[in-house]
Specification:
- By secondary structure, the chain is of the alpha+beta class.
- Among the domains are: about 140 residues, no CATH class; about 90 residues, no CATH class.
- About 25% of the residues lie in helices and about 30% in strands.
- It has nine helices and 18 strands.
- The strands form six sheets. The chain has a four-stranded mixed beta sheet.
- A hairpin with a 3-residue loop joins strand 13 and strand 14.
- The longest helix has 20 residues.
- Bound molecules: zinc ion (2 copies).
- The site of one zinc ion has 6 residues, from strand 7.
- One zinc ion binds next to loops.
Length: about 350
């Protein structure tokens, strides 16, 4: 390491980009944030680094910010994490976000820039929400990435494993990713309200029961949900049969039996999506059907592969250093040497 890397961030696309150049920064006017959420609004944002305005073929413009990777990370950690989180959690997240960003720079998901400023990539809101503790975490881990056999790890994470983490193939391609193994996690068992406040944003805190959850549907309710989500007329649903589970217990093959149609679906995300008006917390659940009521009793929130955010927050608050947190959830991985 030691070499300064520059990352190109596509901040927004609009009919006309308005900006103001300052001595060492620039201000973008009317940036829309939280699109579709209750905090959806426009604000002016200030950025370090350089600004390029690209004219697109469809007549719109895109603002692209080129900035030192470490400075970018300070803003990302400030935007993504609560500033009062335990320092070791902030450091673990700095390493994860850096590893993710470098992989994205090697194989960009976007045309003309490496990452976008939205949740699609990593949330990046410029200088105005910068927290000192996030900056401290990025500086303390300067240049450090997570490695497995000298390759940078694809550091996946989610809210809560539910007691055991999942393997790659339950969620994505049929491959073995050696550092994404199923590990026992007792840390997320009974997090204090204080930890939950730190890890979950306001919106997420409305849903307090997620490590062990339960959802009930009347027959006609489930029929309607599956019809709506799948776009297929299954008729009346008569059975939900888990055919295969991953290492944590998350179902990755589910047979849905209806009076008009039967189909086996997977993987975990599709199952979560088809069985809920929004999305089930996870695909780790047991099914019961009695007296016209379907009951799904489940565990965990998210795909479960990689780092358990609630578990990691508890580990950090109990005094485990970030190195230990990372090697707990990414088995056999190691940290690269910090930049000098
Ligand atoms: Zn993106
Ligand atoms: Zn956990």
């Amino acid at each position: 390491m030691g070499v300064t890397r520059q990352i190109k961030v596509g901040i927004l696309t609009a009919p006309h980009i308005e900006f103001e150049q300052r001595a060492n920064t620039f201000i973008l006017k009317n940036v829309r944030i939280g699109i579709g959420f209750h905090w959806d609004r426009y604000e002016d944002q200030e950025f370090a680094g350089t600004l390029e305005i690209r004219n697109n073929a469809d007549g719109t413009q895109t603002a692209i910010n080129t900035i030192d990777l470490e400075d970018y990370l300070c803003s990302v950690i400030s935007s993504e994490m609560n500033a009062n989180s335990p320092m070791e959690l902030l450091k673990a997240h700095a390493v994860i976000s850096r590893s993710w960003a470098i992989r994205a720079m090697q194989k960009p998901n976007h045309e003309g820039f490496d990452v976008c400023a939205d949740d699609h990539c990593q949330r990046y809101e410029g200088l105005r929400r910068m927290s000192e503790r996030a900056v401290e975490a990025v500086r303390a881990t300067a240049g450090q990435v997570l490695l497995y056999n000298d390759e940078i790890c694809d550091c996946r994470y989610y809210k809560c494993c539910g007691g055991k983490t999942e393997i790659w193939r339950t969620c994505w391609e049929d491959i073995d990713v050696p550092y994404i193994q199923s590990v026992q996690c007792d840390y997320c068992k009974s997090p204090s309200p204080k930890i939950l406040r730190l890890v979950l944003n306001d919106y997420d805190q409305e849903t307090k029961v997620f490590r062990d959850w339960r959802i009930e549907y009347k027959d006609e309710e489930l029929d309607a949900i599956i019809a709506e989500k799948s776009g297929i007329d299954f008729g009346h649903i008569t059975a939900l049969e888990p055919l295969h589970r991953g290492a944590s217990g998350r179902i990755d093959q589910l047979r849905i039996v209806g009076t008009k149609h039967t189909e086996v679906i997977g993987k975990e995300l599709k199952i979560r999506y088809w069985l809920s008006r929004s999305c089930l917390y996870s695909s780790w659940f047991e099914v019961a059907h009695e007296k016209g009521i379907w009951t799904l009793s489940g565990h965990g929130w998210g795909h479960g592969a990689g780092l358990c955010q609630i578990g990691a927050a508890v580990m950090a608050s109990e005094g485990h250093p970030y190195e230990e947190i990372l090697s707990y959830y990414y088995v056999g991985s190691r940290l690269s040497a910090p930049a000098k």
